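Here is one chain, start to finish.
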Amino acid sequence: DSAGTPLQLSPPGRFLRHVAALLARRLDAEALLTLLKHPLTHSTEDRNLHQLTTQRVEMAIRKTGMPYPEQVAFTALCATIDAEGVAEWADWVGKTLIGHKDTQSHPLSYWVEQHLAIANALAAGPRGAPHGLWQQKAGAEALRVMQELEAEAGYGDVFTATDYVDLVGALIATGEVRDRDAPHPDIMIWGTLEARVQGADLVILGGLNDGVWPEAPPPDPWLNRKMRHDAGLLLPERRVGLSAHDYQQAVCAREVWITRAIRSEDAETVPSRWVNRLGNLLNGLAPQGGVAAWNAMIARGDHWLDQARALEAVAQGRPAPRPSPRPPLAARPRRLSVTEIKTLIRDPYAIYAKHSLRLRPLRPLVQSPDAPLRGVVVHKVMEHFVKSVQEDPARLDPSHLMAIADAVLAEMTPWPAARLVWRAKIARIADWFIATERTRMTHGTPAAFEDRAALELSDLGFTLHCVADRIDRSLEGDVQIYDYKTGRPPTEKQQKLFDKQLLIEAAMVEQGAFASIGPATVSRAAFIGLGSNPTEEPAPLADEPPAEVLDNLRTLIAAYLDPAQGFTARRMVERDDFAGDYDHLSRFGEWDASDPAEPEDLT
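Its structure:
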């Protein structure tokens, strides 16, 4: 392409723009990985080790979460990676990339110096080796732009970091990279001005649509045609005439392909007026063979269109069936959490993918204030609050609850906006929670928080485990189980059919699975909904007694330990718009809930 490539789209241009952004914005995990993965970062002989370490760090960030990397936290995360040279690499990354955001105003020369220092240090790697940032045509053009800025920086005013990022981005956008060695030697892309003075054996006229060739005249809200003529300005028709001249020269080449796009975005296009005139002319010269010539032209073009269609042709394949894999018994899960029982009932394929195939969904690179994190924060707030009330009953008031919420939010929520929104949600339910907590305290006293338990079903060779949010004990020795929900808690009907978390936990308590509690009678179990409409939803212990729940659970587990039982995908989901973590693996969409499952024996 004779116009070259814009410098801002070349690797050095992108690299310099990413580095400049470090000065104006707080570094997040996405920006960190973007720079570490850039081909010009650590562009030295041992870049392969840098790439390997970067991949390991990315997986660690996705696993543990690090929305805004800081030096100490990043070094600690890298210390968990067992590889040679990681400590030196982590120190280099921390010093080079972290902590450059500056809200102060400085002279332009200061920003240029900082920008170039970071860029060179990042490209050179931990040992300051020679790098490839300023090499080749794109690197030379980037160096020219930055050297010109550096030379003129002394005449610049005081800038903020945001202003500098905008300035350097605009300057990089003016650069052009022309590399004669990059394109194919036999293909040239010209504009109309260059095509006027050069020739070629084969000329392809592209974009012969009205509005493109000739170009539609731009609207002029200030001057009409007469006013432009009186002022001595060119009329829009002048540009159309020049475009016609270019077309006439190009169409007289030895071999010409006339091409256009039939559709543009969502609308059909109109052929260029010259294509229409050519067709009208030839079709009007029937005695002279014009119609035959026109048809021959179309036939020659159709040959190449057929070639293109052949490349894009896709044979209709059989859609994937609804899977119901039957792995061997050795590969079937022998340990599930209480919350996974609901998944086993509704979407058994997810249990197969998670435990038999041992696949886990990757967490997003940039951790966001999502619903699961909000649930963790609210659980922590309520746990700390109830514990403090145990120590001093006078603390059972909304102000103390909000004080604990502020402390937990400051520790676990690095997003100011989310912190304010979540605090407002907690404040909205504070009075309700205090009132209902007084009622709960009349039934019993908190005895365990986040208590772990495991129940061995020895006859099946299966283990059930759980973490109970809160367990209270009354003076009579019976137990109440509570589980906090930041969303809508499951209804009584849902608990009977699918969401059996509290019912199973009650059975585990009565079986003595909780070491800190011991065998005890469960008199009450309830979900404490802490959403927009706070509510308390009790578990139907009377209709689903623990002994019966445990028997039904044994039947369910035994069914999936039967070699003939398959793990059917989306067997009984609650809603059609339910999105599972493994829907793409089961190829949901090629089949739907109305399709029968096709069992498949796996070895």
